[in-house]
Each structure stands twice: as structure tokens, then as C-alpha cells.
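Human: Here is a favour to ask of a fellow structure person. Comparing notes only helps if you start from a blank page. I am asking you to supply a protein in sequence and C-alpha cell form. Write it directly below this note and I will take it from there.

Assistant:
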Amino acid sequence: MLTFFDSWRSCRKGALLPMKRDFDPSQISSLLRYAWLYRYEPQIGDFLCLLAGEDVNQAWGRSIRGKTLAEIVGEDEHPAILQRWREVLDVPLVQYGQRDEQLSNLSLWKAERLLMPLSTDGEQADHIIGVSLYSLATGNVPVRTSINEGKFRLRCDEV
């Protein structure tokens, strides 16, 4: 997580937001299997997954590339996650969190995630890049808790 964060921070070059084109995947080559990238699509009001590493796809039980956030997380959790992700872009914020989740019908996963904004134009964040570390959790599916539990958020101007 710290390697990923340091890579994002270094490509900011003193700006509030790093440019998407300046984020160098070769700096995090060992983490690419855990990485993902979404672009906010205003015309559909949702995020579109542009890429997802092998471990991310495995945890979801399918490839999520080319899918909207709504298609990936489902209609029950989509509104809250969409609102939280829009805040990552609009404020902008760095967000870290941990949660036990049943991402697919297959298994219960313990997920640890770091989300950070990127900008295409240098002014407005329009992409979220992240890394998700998954491990199989033991036990039964947890009782539904707030998706905001276990989250830590920091404004980019404080980083």
C-alpha cells in the first residue's frame, strides 16, 4: 500500500492532483495484479472500469474490465459507493479501507483498498486508481455493516 501511495504522490510533481499520464505503472510493477483504474463517465453518471489486475478479477469471480461500478458492486451498495467515489474526485481525497466482503458467489474475502484520484486535464479529477489486496476470510458472510466503516480519508491538499 505504501509503495502504491508513494508512487501516486511522486507523480503529483507539486500539484494537488497527479496527471493520469504521469502515473508510471513500471514503478509499481509488482502491484499491477492488485491494481485497477476507473474513469468517471458523466453521460451515464457512473464509473467505468478501464483495467483490473488478475487478483482483482479473481476476487470478483470474473473480469470487471469494461463494466460499470453499478454492474460490479450491485444495486444495493452502488448508491453509497458512487457517492463516496464522487467525493474522492470532487474534494479530492485519498481513501484507505478494510472490509470483509462477499464479492462473488464463491468466497468471502478480506479486502484492503487504497483509492486515489487522477486528472486528465490537471484541474479536475476524473479517474480513480486503486489497489486492492484480497485474502480469503474465514467464517460466514458477515452481518451487513455500513460500507463506510473501516474507512480513512485524507484530503489531497493535506498529503
